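Q: Is it fine to ask for two folds in a single conversation?
A: Yes, each is treated on its own. Send the first.
Q: Here.
A: Result:
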Amino acid sequence: RAVVPSSVALLTLARAQKLVSNDPAVILDVGERRTTIVVVDDGVVAYARDVALGSDHLIDALMSHVSVGHTTLSLSWEQAEALLREAGVPEPESGSVVGAMQLPVATYLALIQPVLEQLISELRRTTTFGAHSASVPSPRKLIMSGQAVLIPHCPEWFGLQLGVPVTVMDGERLLGADGSAAAIACGLASPDCPTTLNLKPAGWAQRSLTVRAASLGWKVFAAVAVMLWIGTALWQGSNRALAQELHTLDARWEQLQPAVALSETIQARQQSIQQLMSRQLQSLGGLHISRGND
């Protein structure tokens, strides 16, 4: 039996509530310790990733020791959770203090702001680099679920930071008031949730063909490179053998130079002897003729 990823469960619930269309969108489900980000294009999952951040990290941040005037405050887990559910993400000028412990708004925001900024940074990174790698346009809508929707003004803050309209998934029909915080469970419980998966994103066939063509191109390039390398190696080896053979012939020719010179000297002397003998024969012939006349 296949395990259905959380991204498919979130998309299933968003489809059931008619929150997705052919336009690109991003689903943000903030859990307690993990946040799921899903980039949706043409009604299917194009890219998804999990981030190890959640609402509990906001509570952990509020449990830090802070100095307020001459007093050092340290909230328990229950106090920090209650303060987060009460104050949410207030505007800096919305009031001077928040909560029963009269924590200044500036101090409160300074505690939770790093976690919120990290979450929005991961969201921007996913919608920019992740969507680009999947050839998906920038999202035009933010769909939120999870623990963040239970924090006052948190969805609006994310929509403002991302610069797109925000919609909250409604899970109350299935699980009551906390249903929106359990969108993954609602999606899995939906009858429309697939039991077998086909996670091929939009344009998958074209991208797959492109990847295969690129892979084939690299293989052909590698084969040609190997053949050129082998041919170059053989050519260089042949040149080295030819050069070595020429060097051997030159050495042998140098060794034969004295014999060639001796042969030329002998031939010259033989020619000189032949010329001398020819002259002597001519002289003897002339002498013999003169005696005959006498």
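Q: Second one now.
A: Result:
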Amino acid sequence: FDQWGGGVREMCERGFINYVVQEKKAFCLSPAFTPIPEQEANLEMARRYFTHIGPSTIHDAMYYFHATAAQVKDWLSKLPVSTAECEGKTYLYIDNNQTYDQGIPKCLFLAGFDQLLLAHEKKESLFLSQENLRAIFNLAGIVMPALMIDGEVVGKWKKKNKKLLVTMFMIQQGRAAYRAGDFSAAAQMLGAAKTPDEIMGEADHLRGNALMHLGMYAEAAEAYAAALNDGTYGKRGALLTNRGKALAAVGDYTTAAQAFSAATQDASYATPFKAYLGLGNALFQSGDYANAGT
């Protein structure tokens, strides 16, 4: 047994047991059946995928099925797929000739682990912007219930104590306020873009910059430290340099020097001279004149 199913999951996948159709979670023995041959089953799943979840790219299907490009292309060669071009990418789908008597609702509440999000490569999703990726796909492997408006995920929701709680993504508004020079509003909005325990590098990075403009250096250092926890965000050199500046501004030159020194180790950092300048100044201010000169 483990949190992802363990032996119970394997028995389900092998057709020995299945869930009982009821609200309370329970299993029962599966009725006897003859499994579909693997190649035939894969082709049938691909047909259902491109019929009910497409349009999707080949990359999306590779992500969903954990398959190779050659496998996906082999399935497509045997299916009656149509194509559509969007933003330089080719999307594939199967037209089932089904008609609908109404349009897609303006507002949709997607369930946790919703197929619309899981069926497409999350870093290339048409529905979820990258800046909000970690708010829905967190680092613990949980896919949060999402709020979609006009085809775009703009927030998340949960039900607690018989109440519906909706958290709107504030990062876009925070970014706009920052660009407009309203650093106080930007800091507030970017702080509201995530819960305290959420990891969202971009929001914390920009919030740190806003706090620096406001002269709130200790808070800015904490924001940069939080952004560094997001390994997928990158920009370690810039974050460490900014953190060093914030620490130096409050007189913590020893820790500032450590941050600047770490920044120089980031080979992808485009402007390492900023880290070296900060390091030299922090060492000088802490009385280490010899190393400051080098």
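Q: Anything structural to flag on that second result?
A: Two points. The first strand starts at residue 17 and ends at 19. The mean pLDDT is 91.
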